[in-house]
Amino acid sequence: MRSEAELEGVTLLGNNKTQYKTTYSPEVLEKFPNKHPGNDYMVTFNCPEFTSLCPKTGQPDFAEIKINYIPDQYLVESKSLKLYMFSFRNHGDFHEDCVNIIMKDLVKLLNPKYIEVEGIFMPRGGISLYPFANYGKPGTEFEAIAKTRLFAAIDRRK
Amino acid sequence: MRSEAELEGVTLLGNNKTQYKTTYSPEVLEKFPNKHPGNDYMVTFNCPEFTSLCPKTGQPDFAEIKINYIPDQYLVESKSLKLYMFSFRNHGDFHEDCVNIIMKDLVKLLNPKYIEVEGIFMPRGGISLYPFANYGKPGTEFEAIAKTRLFAAIDRRK
Amino acid sequence: MRSEAELEGVTLLGNNKTQYKTTYSPEVLEKFPNKHPGNDYMVTFNCPEFTSLCPKTGQPDFAEIKINYIPDQYLVESKSLKLYMFSFRNHGDFHEDCVNIIMKDLVKLLNPKYIEVEGIFMPRGGISLYPFANYGKPGTEFEAIAKTRLFAAIDRRK
Amino acid sequence: MRSEAELEGVTLLGNNKTQYKTTYSPEVLEKFPNKHPGNDYMVTFNCPEFTSLCPKTGQPDFAEIKINYIPDQYLVESKSLKLYMFSFRNHGDFHEDCVNIIMKDLVKLLNPKYIEVEGIFMPRGGISLYPFANYGKPGTEFEAIAKTRLFAAIDRRK
Amino acid sequence: MRSEAELEGVTLLGNNKTQYKTTYSPEVLEKFPNKHPGNDYMVTFNCPEFTSLCPKTGQPDFAEIKINYIPDQYLVESKSLKLYMFSFRNHGDFHEDCVNIIMKDLVKLLNPKYIEVEGIFMPRGGISLYPFANYGKPGTEFEAIAKTRLFAAIDRRK
Amino acid sequence: MRSEAELEGVTLLGNNKTQYKTTYSPEVLEKFPNKHPGNDYMVTFNCPEFTSLCPKTGQPDFAEIKINYIPDQYLVESKSLKLYMFSFRNHGDFHEDCVNIIMKDLVKLLNPKYIEVEGIFMPRGGISLYPFANYGKPGTEFEAIAKTRLFAAIDRRK
Amino acid sequence: MRSEAELEGVTLLGNNKTQYKTTYSPEVLEKFPNKHPGNDYMVTFNCPEFTSLCPKTGQPDFAEIKINYIPDQYLVESKSLKLYMFSFRNHGDFHEDCVNIIMKDLVKLLNPKYIEVEGIFMPRGGISLYPFANYGKPGTEFEAIAKTRLFAAIDRRK
Amino acid sequence: MRSEAELEGVTLLGNNKTQYKTTYSPEVLEKFPNKHPGNDYMVTFNCPEFTSLCPKTGQPDFAEIKINYIPDQYLVESKSLKLYMFSFRNHGDFHEDCVNIIMKDLVKLLNPKYIEVEGIFMPRGGISLYPFANYGKPGTEFEAIAKTRLFAAIDRRK
Amino acid sequence: MRSEAELEGVTLLGNNKTQYKTTYSPEVLEKFPNKHPGNDYMVTFNCPEFTSLCPKTGQPDFAEIKINYIPDQYLVESKSLKLYMFSFRNHGDFHEDCVNIIMKDLVKLLNPKYIEVEGIFMPRGGISLYPFANYGKPGTEFEAIAKTRLFAAIDRRK
Amino acid sequence: MRSEAELEGVTLLGNNKTQYKTTYSPEVLEKFPNKHPGNDYMVTFNCPEFTSLCPKTGQPDFAEIKINYIPDQYLVESKSLKLYMFSFRNHGDFHEDCVNIIMKDLVKLLNPKYIEVEGIFMPRGGISLYPFANYGKPGTEFEAIAKTRLFAAIDRRK
Ligand SMILES: [Ca+2]
Ligand SMILES: [Ca+2]
Ligand SMILES: [Ca+2]
Ligand SMILES: [Ca+2]
Ligand SMILES: [Ca+2]
Ligand SMILES: [Ca+2]
Ligand SMILES: [Ca+2]
Ligand SMILES: [Ca+2]
Ligand SMILES: [Ca+2]
Ligand SMILES: [Ca+2]
Ligand SMILES: [Ca+2]
Ligand SMILES: [Ca+2]
Ligand SMILES: [Ca+2]
Ligand SMILES: [Ca+2]
Ligand SMILES: [Ca+2]
Ligand SMILES: [Ca+2]
């Protein structure tokens, strides 16, 4: 079990004054130290409750966002991730832009070895759009892996 | 969020004078600039509402068209893609030809790093036909990847 | 096996001069005699390849049409039903109107004991619309059954 | 366990001289006595390997046949049912006719309290056809139940 | 196809000045005349893109809303229904309240013979909550049917 | 929680000298008192590990057995039910007979208000056989319900 | 939206001092007033995170608990329901007993018009056990409905 | 759209004198020119209506045949493929032999760059048999790919 | 079709004196010559009817056994494989041992180029155990492939 | 079948004095010798009944734990694995920590050639978290394979 010192920086979990921001707020993201740096491992988040706005018409869009990353020194705290996701609620951007922005914010927060972000957006006009972006830390083997992973999300959809 | 300049060339989205062409019209396709050229990423479209005609008998055919591409400088605007897809409505061609034509039109529009197009056609005479075509930009690593990807659509079908 | 006399009126099946009409054409429907009038039975058609147009915007719509009927003296010939369904291709009407029209045309053709027609239309604007209409021949027990059957399609969708 | 007397009339099961007839042969059906006449019960057969011919074009058709019955004095032996089903292989008839014929042959063999037969035929021309016929023994409560059961197969399909 | 007169009152469909309200706005709902008053029929809407707020904590909630109704003189226009659904975006209420409010607003707009509304809300704290409300017009047979329908949504969930 | 007195008669649960009989052994069944006689309730068992032998050829058969009952004074203990099911391992009987025998043994043990037993047997010769038997205690309302329940298992299979 | 008065009695929602009891604690359940007493409606809870102990061996058991009820004057608050469910964590009882206890506690709290509780327990020894209990308020039509609902859970399982 | 010259050799499509052969007839296969030789692409056929006979007992067998190939100069015409498949109807051979024969006949017809054929046969005696054969044109990269593809069909089955 | 010479050694197929052994009997396995030695191909068997005993407690275990192999000179005859599988009925061994034994017996019989065997055992104590063993003929490329295939069964399970 | 010597060290299987510990107890794990050291093989465990506590709030968490390993000299005994899993019942730790701890305990017990552990945790706050950790024995080829396997769990989820 984690000591209190190991939980330093985790301020939102179990806190009852939660503020739900609805404009893009990357500053709500929190991290805590990775206690298993000796072995690389993968952490997956499934976020089926994402909504944003169309940047041209203002119409609400809905998506399931999937995140996979290999941590280096830090892990993202999941309640802060929830609040970050909710902060897109009144933000207008194309689907392709939202997915790239989420990936870049998490790279900035965590400096992970690897990360990928996928958006499964609900159809508009009879067509569905699913962007997938990823990143491998330069100078690690994950830089090359990122390129081969571009096709992974395609193949797990039926 | 995109500035107006970043949306230049996007004329169909939110426009209420939409014309639904029903003869093959590649000219309706529109593109807009990719704001994330620093990292390769994949964009997927699912188009379950495709219909064309048999080139010999005139009988309507129905398919789900799936498109995956890695953009270079441009992204295809999704409403224009919808209108392009609808323009096959009175066009007669074999399933294998339709899929290759769609792929070539998008290569011409976007000059992407990579693209693949798959057609899941409804059965005729107790047999279903699913063509899959792809393209990797010459001189990039995606030229070789295209060859290995020929088998990808097979393996994600159950 | 049916004698030639029992196939009288069936002109489209196996005919190679098939004309695919694309404007509403109820006159293509054909019927043939029911050889089992001694026992009531149900005949089901699943038609996943239906397309029509929005009556206001002209945008193509797509649906799966499901038909269930209890014949009296006649059965509808399935190839003629296919041609009838295809004839909505350039017809513009609301989803609710298409389903009611199909039901009424089949009542007129077959004078069946019972019939129900359901349309599973593809979503528009994030909402799907499924109309369900039915009919029980006046003076039979199916008149009352028709009312209770209004809820049947709801409950078989998950 | 059944005594030999209780298996009298069962000649095909475990017999290695099996003849696979391919023209309609209701005479291959065999029955054996019901040992549980004190309580009504239901027996279900799923036969996913049915094939016949189109009566007009000769094209092979394929179906899954589902049979449900409440026995009275006799049960149908399952290997003989298999051979009966196989005997439609070179028989030409409309889907609606095949299903009614199977039901009537089993009524003749078993004189059951109740029986229903459903055919799930593979699509032709983009349309699937599923006939459903049933029978309740006159003078029993199953005569009335048969009428309400006409809608049962519809509602269990999704 | 509908004449212009038959489309009177439909102002939002095909209109490019769409305003997406995000506070509860029942006034955006529009209706048009039912052209098939001679036969009762069912109209179903599936709305998987509903979001509202928790009335106590302000946390966003997400749901799929399902609506089934039997029209009397009017049908609800589907684009106006979409805008109405979107108007709950910044509205705070318990799940049970949202579902009852939607039902009552549609009763007021359409005065239908029958209507039912179901909400499939995403889980909170490991528990999912699905409210189901309905209404049958007083003095019609649907008043009694409404009571038996209270159990319908339960039984179609697996 | 149950007192020791309330567990009297439960000898197999937690006992490490379990004997797995492989010839039909109805005597292994154990029961314990129903503590909720004030309200009728349903108890369901799913037993996917049933195997017996063909009475004529000796070939092993496999099935999933489903049991539903409304208790009166007693409940069957689930470990004893497991041992009873396993005791059919070297027993030869037709599928229809196995299902009726299981039902009758449980009626004898429990004297329940209602019980039904269904067998989902693996296919032989391309055909699957599913028997369904039930019982309602004479003089209760479940006697009549048993008759209508004969069709229940059919309709929940897809 | 609910006024503060309408939320009186709701003490756990949004409270950050949540205590997770692990011995049976019916006293944690909270209720709030039903604002829609004019129309009967159904409220469903899905609780896939239930765990208790075997009363004889102490082995942990796991289940999904499903609750459906028609409120009268009160609704159960969902966070308090979560805490109540968690309080079975170190409680030992047979599956049949747990389900009846949950139903009775909710009847006592809410005095609802109707309630049903189902437990989908994980298999033990190759057999799964699913109890289903229900209650209709004496003197209402739901008293009779409760008896017919005993079979509902069986039929929605596949 | 294809010109008449580009359809030369296609004699069966749209022809109403179709003969359905039921003894192995590789001569019915027809081909037409590939108009997209500049890019390799994959063509998939799903044939769920295959039936043949056991070479020793004469019992009918049923299978779904799946074909994937990369064309070189020619494509197989789909109606001729249907007739070829139907010609196995009275042909007796082991499952493993049927699949290899189909592959070899298509290699002979098309001289493709790559081809694979899979048979999903219905179970016999409680066991299902699925053969998978493939071929890569000697001297191309597909010769080596064929060997790695031997495992592909296994892994896409669940 | 196979000549009689090509069927030499196949003694069980179509034979009516089948003996069902219930103690481990590898000697019942039969083989016949591979007629397609020019191209490597894969043969898959699905055996969902496997049962054995726990070596310590004697409790029956149930599994689905999956076999994939690339033949060299011989194929295993499927009826003999069925009898071999049934012979584990009274054999006691750990799951991991059963799967390794089956693989080794088939290697001994067939001397195949490659083989893999997987067991999907039913859960015990809330945990399922799935062993997977394989073999590549020494001196062939399949020796190395066998090592990479160790992970294949994991990834096709969902 | 295993001799008694080969079962030495297996003390929990078939033992009726089972103690269910609820605080983290790695000492309950037991192992037995691998009888097939000549061929590498994979052993998979699916454990859908895992529960632990949130380290900060104390709220119970639920998960399905999946374990895959290639044994060297030892196999883990499955009943002891069950007891080990149950011992997390009152242990508080983050999801990422639980999965890494389980993996490390099994490495310590078995010194396997390869192992991977995945946790499919139930959603909290609308987000699901799935950690995946693995290990390849240093100096074997599995050390490198472990790195590529980090992505395996992602791709088998749909
Ligand atoms: Ca996906
Ligand atoms: Ca479709
Ligand atoms: Ca596909
Ligand atoms: Ca439906
Ligand atoms: Ca089939
Ligand atoms: Ca069906
Ligand atoms: Ca959603
Ligand atoms: Ca969920
Ligand atoms: Ca539902
Ligand atoms: Ca099974
Ligand atoms: Ca069933
Ligand atoms: Ca669970
Ligand atoms: Ca259930
Ligand atoms: Ca397959
Ligand atoms: Ca598997
Ligand atoms: Ca998974």
UniProtKB/TrEMBL annotation, chains A, B, C, D, E, F, G, H, I, J:
Its EC number is 1.7.1.13. One of its GO terms (molecular function) is preQ1 synthase activity. The active site is at C54, D61. The keyword NADP applies. Keywords: Cytoplasm, NADP, Oxidoreductase, Queuosine biosynthesis. SUPFAM superfamilies: Tetrahydrobiopterin biosynthesis enzymes-like (SSF55620). Pathway: tRNA modification; tRNA-queuosine biosynthesis. The keyword Acetylation does not apply. Substrate binds at V76, E77, S78, H95, E96. It is found in: Cytoplasm. It catalyses: 7-aminomethyl-7-carbaguanine + 2 NADP(+) = 7-cyano-7-carbaguanine + 2 NADPH + 3 H(+). Catalyzes the NADPH-dependent reduction of 7-cyano-7-deazaguanine (preQ0) to 7-aminomethyl-7-deazaguanine (preQ1). Belongs to the GTP cyclohydrolase I family. QueF type 1 subfamily. HAMAP family: QueF_type1. This is NADPH-dependent 7-cyano-7-deazaguanine reductase. It comes from Fibrobacter succinogenes (strain ATCC 19169 / S85). The lineage of its organism: Bacteria, Pseudomonadati, Fibrobacterota, Fibrobacteria, Fibrobacterales.
